[in-house]
Amino acid sequence: MIVRQPCPHCGREVGVYRNPTPTVDVVIAMPSGQGEGVVLIKRANPPYGWALPGGFVDYGETCEHAAVREMREETGLDVTLTGLLGVYSDPDRDPRQHTMSVVYTGVPADPDSLLAGDDAAEARVFPLGEWPELAFDHARILADYMAARRDRR
After folding, report:
1. SS3 category, 4
2. Which residues pair with 72 in a beta bridge?
3. What is the Cα–Cα distance from 146 to 99, expressed in whole angstroms?
4. Active-site choice (13, 64, 70, 122)
5. Cβ atoms of 1 and 93 closer than 8 Å
6. How far is CA 47 from its chain centroid?
């Protein structure tokens, strides 16, 4: 969609594209003594709540690079991406703005390196299906993850 706005320099009307902002999230599968779990972060910034680790794709960056970078920044984990779970683009998925998220699955090189950082106030492993109330559309994403796991079996 193109929106007409005055140029801040010359005042002439110019077209400005309004596009969704690209983001990435990763469902990090963690081994656990009681069974497999998933890493969630408690957001340090609004909107608050528990969420999958992720963030915005920087200009000039691939989605894959952004996903690996965001995992390191928010969880301290060096993650190997293992697949593409899906693309989530509902205009209402993020209350701040229209975003579209490319969601990957991944595994950590060293699960013991889990440590909250950057925009994460806390990082924890939750057993499969036993997560708290989640921000954004992350409950749907994790439901899709669980369905994909069932389908593989």
Report:
1. strand
2. none
3. 23
4. 122
5. no
6. 13
- Specify whether 122 is catalytic: yes
How far are the Cα atoms of 15, 16, 67, 132, 153 from residue 88, in angstroms, in the given order?
Answer: 27, 24, 15, 20, 24
In sequence order, what DSSP letters do the residues of 6-72 get, joined into one string?
A: E-TTT--EEEEE--PEEEEEEEEEE--TTS-EEEEEEESSSSPEEE-SEEEPPTT--HHHHHHHHHH
Show the CA angle centred on residue 65, arms to residues 53 and 44, nearest 5°. 25
Q: Assess contact for 114 and 123: CB atoms under 8 A.
A: yes
pLDDT digit string, tens, across residues 95-140: 999 999 999 999 999 999 999 988 899 999 999 999 999 999 999 9
As a whole number of angstroms, the distance between CA 113 and CA 89 comes to 31
Instruction: Supply the pTM of this predicted model.
Output: 0.89
